[in-house]
Amino acid sequence: MNKTLPEAISLMDELKEKIDPSGVEVIIAPSFTNLPKAVELLDGTGIEVAAQNMHFADSGAYTGEVSADMLLSIGVHTVILGHSERRAYFNETNETLKEKALQAHQKEMTNIFCVGEQLTHRQSGKHFEVVETQIKEALFELPIVAYKKIVIAYEPVWAIGTGETASPAQAQEMHKFIRSLIAKKYGQDVAQHVRILYGGSVKPANAVEIFSQPDVDGGLIGGASLRADDFKAIVQAAKS
């Protein structure tokens, strides 16, 4: 929940000027109120636009919610689902996220699906179990074809907005584990083609080392994406 429309326009103008998306995929996810302008301003730049959330129903008595068709009608074809803040503050469960993931598949939208453990899970050694449950309960009833448009984003909750970052080794360990889960369910080919992003205090100083891990395919960037120069440096790190 950052950036008024004038602030968002200013940031996007900077991104257009400073970021070269060739060779990588660059996506920004503004607030709902800024999405139409983002689609307009970034048309033809190679920078894509995603929504931060959506509802699982086509329409109906869900005051305050936004549907897939509403997003598609303004040119947004990618959505972030299951972000840790949605789970923590808005009571999103694996069950509701399963419905949202199914809706994204049925509407042929790209689904950036977030998973990750709390600090207590990590400290008690249950981090693999938590992530496995999140993935299996929300995504494993989807057909294999759905994985052409699914991106997994691993975000250790204890490393979001805290300044703490999972070590490159910790990120790689979890990413490898996630890929192995997908391989067991859908086969090695699907697992190798699914992109797995790391999210959790990625910044210019650590991006190269994190992205160099064999199973880390990119980043889900938080605070650093609000500063054009920092985001530019992270995009450059993804190319290296």
State the low-pLDDT regions, or none: none
> Within the CATH hierarchy, at the fold level, what is the topology?
TIM Barrel
Measured as a percent range, the helix fraction is 40-55%
N→C terminal distance: 31 Å
CATH class: Alpha Beta
> Strands of the biggest beta sheet: in what spatial order?
1-2-3-4-5-6-7
Note the overall shape.
globular
CATH architecture: Alpha-Beta Barrel
Note the total helix count.
11
SS-based structural class?
alpha/beta
The number of strands is 7
- Overall pLDDT score: 96
Tell me the number of structural domains. 1
**Compute the gyration radius: what is it?**
17 Å
Task: Give the full name of the CATH homologous superfamily.
Answer: Aldolase class I
- The ordered string of helix (H) and strand (E) elements is HEHEHEHHEHHEHHEHEH
What would you call the quaternary organization?
Answer: single chain
Tell me the strand percentage band: 5-15%
Topology at a glance:
Layout: H1 5-18, E1 26-28, H2 35-42, E2 47-51, H3 68-73, E3 78-81, H4 84-89, H5 94-106, E4 110-115, H6 119-123, H7 127-139, E5 150-154, H8 168-186, H9 188-193, E6 196-198, H10 204-211, E7 218-219, H11 228-239
Parallel strand pairs: 1-2, 2-3, 3-4, 4-5, 5-6, 6-7
Helix pairs in contact: 1-2, 1-11, 5-7, 7-8, 10-11
